[in-house]
Amino acid sequence: MPVYPRIAIVILNWNGIRFLQQFLPNVKKNSGGAEIVVADNNSSDDSLSWLRENHPDVSLIEMKINTGFAGGYNKALKQVDADIFVLLNSDVEVTNGWMQPIIRLMSNDPTIAACQPKILSFQQRNLFEHAGASGGFIDYLGYPFCRGRIYNTLEEDKGQYNDSREVFWATGASMFVRADVFHELNGFDEDFFAHMEEIDLCWRMHYAGYKVMVEPASFVYHVGGGTLPKSNHIKTYYNFRNNLMMIHKNFPADRMWIIMVIRLFLDGLAGLKFLASGNVKDCWSVVKAHFYFYGHYQHRKKVRNESMRLIKKQNVPFIYRKNIVFSYYLLGRKYFSQLENKFSK
Description:
There is one protein chain. By secondary structure, this protein is an alpha/beta fold. The protein is built from 11 helices and 14 strands. It has helices spanning 17-30, 47-54, 68-77, 100-108, 179-184, 197-207, 233-250, 253-276, 280-295, 297-308, 324-330, and strands at 7-13, 35-41, 59-63, 84-88, 92-93, 112-121, 136-139, 144-146, 149-150, 153-154, 165-166, 174-178, 211-222, 319-320. Strands 1, 2, 3, 4, 5, 6, 11, 12 and 13 form a 9-stranded mixed beta sheet that branches. Helix 2 (47-54) links the parallel strand 2 and strand 3. It is globular.
């Protein structure tokens, strides 16, 4: 008889009672066989009392301090006993049978450390959603994008990306991850707080010799912007800051510094573009992101050195060998299909 993995769906919640009310019943209905856990990141709304009254069968983990997506999940997952964790945003509508294709895929290949379903927009259900689409990638300068979403261009899902395949990163909005690998790699980098911590983790998974996959036979619908809207100067700060930390932490030493110099120039241009558009707060967020990184350089250097000790494999696949900014804005390549055959292997 086959031995099925123990699965725990862990929803990190912070003042998200409206999403729990809307989507938790659907998760329970369509996720038979999995333990469902809500890890509360020190919410100030009525999330906990509502859960206790309406869903007493859901396991609760209460944290007294909000340490963001990264710290919250790190603390919560130390208290969850499972073979596979499913990190699920509270604003995700899952579908009937959504877990089975991914669990089957991971059960048949123990080298798969993480996998995501296809992520579609909750509001416009025929479009891919910003956070993950049909699998994540980065370019050689560390800019992330997705199969089905490059910058603000969301492709219509016509089945063009329905193949199960390896990707560079899997979205934290709906990430299936092996518990032993998560703990082996020390989980998320808590300095990130929120945004791009899943890309950093997947990068380290590649270095450790594991695969990251997308399985579009499984699909979910994501609202997006549940904690911070897509256009928000705080989100701008985290995106630029965390991208700098991720580049410094993960790129090989022979390329890292030249990439950092190039990114300093390109981030400066992005800041000027924000300023020219009247987005003063976004411009200042870019400046603050760089000040943070340089001010914490010695600490981040130690983090990089610790991370590099876990490397078993030098070459990381599925990095776009061109610059996605240049391809998108100057060459007009808005769709992932226009970028194929230009990835490292």
